[in-house]
Structure formats: structure tokens, C-alpha cells
Specification:
Strand order of the largest sheet: 13-12-9-10-11-14-21-19
CATH architecture of the largest domain: 2-Layer Sandwich
Largest sheet: 8 strands, antiparallel
Number of helices: 14
Radius of gyration: 21 Å
Distance between the termini: 50 Å
Strand content: 25-35%
CATH class of the largest domain: Alpha Beta
Shape: globular
CATH topology of the largest domain: D-amino Acid Aminotransferase, Chain A, domain 1
Helix content: 25-40%
């Protein structure tokens, strides 16, 4: 087992990793930018190293500074959390070259799943259902027009190196195609330095359902059931739950088997997530594989009583997994609390927290790095907390969440708490009648 782990991340996920390491008797090193000097992950780690100014490119994305911090603290493993360098094959390769264990998959596995075209081709060969679309990047408008007619409108253009909705455009008819094609390429080039786009059939009224997986270094893989992540705005998740209210036992088995096929196709090592779109007829299609821990991993932990961060660390240390699949015994819902103004198109709201009261009680879990007086910097993702409520049934979990949200007081900034309170009361949400377009017409 590792003696000391450096956490190449910040905020709540860094604190989450520190907690598990402490329980396992592993020393931790926090790295931080000058903007994060007062963050709780810095205070709770055994050691902390400042790696630069607020800009991510000069701190949390600066591989040389992170590796230097690893060297001066004698850390023998790095946990990347999510975001930043968590799915960067170059960083994983550098760790390997310097004899530092990257707690995650191999560089080759990251590479195979990081490019969406390669990932889709790999999954198709493995027998995992994929959305009809281009075999590779679109060369020009002529190819785009021909393919759109072949697979039928509506279609969606996606950046091959993309994420978070960047470089993505839905096209409902041919006259919209050229403008959407040019816009998607321009946006992708600006955001990712790669303007390659591909085309897929647009799935109407889809659910976004993902399967949590784990694989060890010895070729064994298992799934840990599903999470429904369909409540989104601009392709960013706001609320997740497990099990999905749309799921049937038969569909769960088929999606679980497909996720394991995905793992086996690349001999996946570590904890990851296979994401699917599921249409209204319960046909499912591979979307992508995230080769890291997810923000919403807590939902799975609560319904199967399983520490996924601990599992990540044990797999990286060479432990074998049982290969047993896990199924939800409870129902859990997670609400992401963002420093955003939900009444003003979710505009970011950084600043000083002047009052903080967190909820408690049976079935309530809070993962957060904020505290009374903490100043939320404007440089990073706006998520400041996650509240997870677990109960015997979905309705009970919703009612617990309603009560917990009513107790959650964060003053000095705007947050998404009012949005989540309205969502928990919504009739369609409570009945499980929603898809990824649900918030387009949601009023609160």
C-alpha cells in the first residue's frame, strides 16, 4: 500500500480523498494555488505545497509543478480526482516514467477512451450498442450532408475532443446544417485546440444513464449499477440519483453487461463510468467512458455501502477485485450546490460566505470544502457542495432532500438551493417523468 499520496486537485474532491486516505493510514499532500490557500483540503492534508497563481494553467494543470511537489514531499502516488489532469494521458505517462503511481487507468486506456471516435469504434467492435453516425471525423460539408440524409434528421454534431457541451450542435433539418457545422468546428477549435467534429443520430427524449464500473490489474471487471443523470442544463449535470426511476431489472442487466464488455475491450484498470443515452423505448447507446472518479460517485456509495475512493486506491496498489456486481439496496439522490444565481440564468456567484448552516439528520450526507467566512474564488468550477440523501424508497429520499434543503443556509452569495427545492416539489420529477430536456421548460 502507498505511504503517501499527493492529491492533484482542489475543493471537495480533494477533501473527500484525504478522508479516505486518513482512514487507510495513508499520509496526504495537498497542492494549491494562491487562490486556494484557505481551502479546507489544504488545512486537512498532512502536508501542503503551493504550486502557483490562481490560473489553472499555472497551477492545477501545470504538470512540472505537481511532479516537483511530489518529489519534495516523497509522495509515491498521485490521485488526480476529477477534472484538471484526471484524464490526461500525458500526465499519466509522466507519472509512470518517474515511478509515481497514477491512481487511475493506464495512459493507453485513457487515450483509447479520451477520443470519442476511437472510443466509439472500440465499443462497436466489442459489441456495445452505439448511436448510428459517422465512422470518423467529418471531412467536409458534402460528407456531412450525405451522412445526415443517410441516418435521418435530426442529427447532432459533436467535437471529438469535447466535453461540457462545447462544439455540440443539434440540426433538425438540412438548411441548418452548414451553419451548425461551421459553428461547431470553430467552437471546438477554440475550446480544445482540435476542430474535428463527428455526427450522430440525435436521440429524442433521451435519459442520460451511466453505469459505474471497476476493473483490476488482472483482467477482472464488475459493475456497481446505474445512476440517472438526466437533470441537466447546457449538458451539465445538476441532480443525480440511483437507481434510475426509468430502469427495469432486465434493462439493468443488459446495460451492466454492456458496461463490462466496454471494460474488457480495453482491459480497464481502476474505477470508471460508462455513459449511455437511453431512448423512450429503452434502447440504449454508448456515449462515452469517463476514466476517473465521477462527481456523483457518492450516490453509488450510499446505495451499495461501498467506498469508491478506497477501491480506486486498492486497485492502484495491486489488489484484486471480487468481480461481483453490485445492485442498489436503497435510493439516493444528489443535488449539486453551485455558487450560481438560478434566477439569472445560473450566472456564477463567487464571493465571501457570510453565514453557513449545513443540514444533518438521518440519511443526509454533505460533501463540501466551504465554511463560514470562506471566500469562493472566481477562477474554478462553481460547485461548492454536494448534498446526498438516502432512504428506502425514491419518494422518501426526495422528502429527506426537501427537508435537508430547507435547512441549508448559505448567505453572502447566490446558490442553486432554490432551484433544487423547486425541483423536489415538481410533480413530473417526483413521478420520474423527465429526460435530458426537462429543464428547458422548467419554471420555478
Amino acid at each position: 500500500m502507498f505511504k503517501k499520496i499527493l492529491i492533484a486537485n482542489r475543493g471537495e474532491i480533494a477533501l473527500r480523498i484525504i478522508r479516505t486516505c486518513r482512514e487507510m493510514g495513508i499520509k496526504t499532500v495537498a497542492v494549491y494555488s494562491t487562490a486556494d490557500r484557505d481551502s479546507l483540503h489544504v488545512k486537512f492534508a498532512d502536508e501542503a505545497v503551493c504550486i502557483g497563481p490562481p490560473a489553472s494553467s499555472e497551477s492545477y494543470l501545470n504538470m512540472a509543478k505537481i511532479m516537483s511537489a511530489c518529489e519534495i514531499t516523497n509522495a509515491n502516488a498521485i490521485h488526480p480526482g476529477y477534472g484538471f489532469l484526471a484524464e490526461n494521458e500525458k500526465f499519466a505517462e509522466i507519472c509512470r516514467e518517474y515511478g509515481i503511481k497514477f491512481i487511475g487507468p493506464t495512459p493507453q486506456q485513457i487515450s483509447m477512451m479520451g477520443d470519442k471516435i476511437t472510443a466509439k469504434d472500440t465499443m462497436r467492435k466489442a459489441g456495445v450498442p452505439c448511436i448510428p453516425g459517422s465512422d470518423g471525423l467529418l471531412e467536409d460539408m458534402n460528407e456531412a450532408k450525405r451522412l445526415a440524409i443517410e441516418i435521418g434528421y435530426p442529427v447532432i454534431l459533436k467535437a471529438t475532443a469535447g466535453g461540457g457541451g462545447k462544439g455540440m450542435r443539434v440540426v433538425w433539418e438540412e438548411k441548418e446544417l452548414e451553419k451548425a457545422f461551421n459553428t461547431a468546428r470553430t467552437e471546438a477549435g477554440a475550446a480544445f485546440g482540435n476542430d474535428g467534429v463527428y455526427m450522430e443520430k440525435f436521440i429524442e427524449e433521451p435519459r442520460h444513464i451511466e453505469i459505474q464500473v471497476a476493473g483490476d490489474q488482472y483482467g477482472k471487471a464488475c459493475h456497481l449499477s446505474e445512476r440517472d443523470c438526466s437533470i441537466q442544463r447546457r449538458h451539465q449535470k445538476l441532480t443525480e440519483e440511483s437507481p434510475s426511476p426509468f430502469m427495469t431489472p432486465e434493462l439493468r442487466e443488459r446495460m451492466g453487461e454492456a458496461a463490462i464488455k466496454a471494460c474488457n475491450a480495453i482491459n480497464y484498470e481502476g474505477v470508471g463510468t460508462v455513459e449511455f443515452l437511453v431512448d423512450k423505448y429503452r434502447n440504449f447507446y454508448f456515449m462515452e467512458m469517463n476514466t476517473r472518479i465521477q462527481v456523483e460517485h457518492c450516490v453509488t456509495e450510499e446505495v451499495i455501502n461501498y467506498d469508491l475512493i478506497k477501491e480506486q486506491i486498492k486497485i492502484a496498489a495491486g489488489d484484486a477485485i471480487s468481480g461481483k456486481n453490485y445492485y442498489p439496496a436503497m435510493h439516493a439522490i444528489e443535488c449539486r450546490i453551485n455558487a450560481e444565481d438560478p434566477y439569472n440564468d445560473f450566472r456564477p456567484s463567487p464571493g465571501k460566505i457570510t453565514t453557513l448552516h449545513t443540514p444533518g439528520g438521518h440519511g443526509v450526507r454533505i460533501d463540501s470544502h466551504i465554511y463560514d467566512g470562506y471566500v469562493i474564488p472566481p477562477y474554478y468550477d462553481s460547485m461548492i457542495a454536494k448534498i446526498i440523501c438516502v432512504a428506502q424508497t425514491r419518494i422518501e429520499a426526495i422528502e429527506t432532500m426537501e427537508r435537508a434543503l430547507s435547512e441549508y443556509v448559505i448567505e453572502g452569495i447566490k446558490t442553486t438551493i432554490p432551484f433544487h427545492r423547486a425541483l423536489m416539489k415538481d410533480k413530473n420529477f417526483r413521478e420520474g417523468n423527465f429526460n435530458t430536456g426537462f429543464l428547458n421548460n422548467f419554471k420555478f
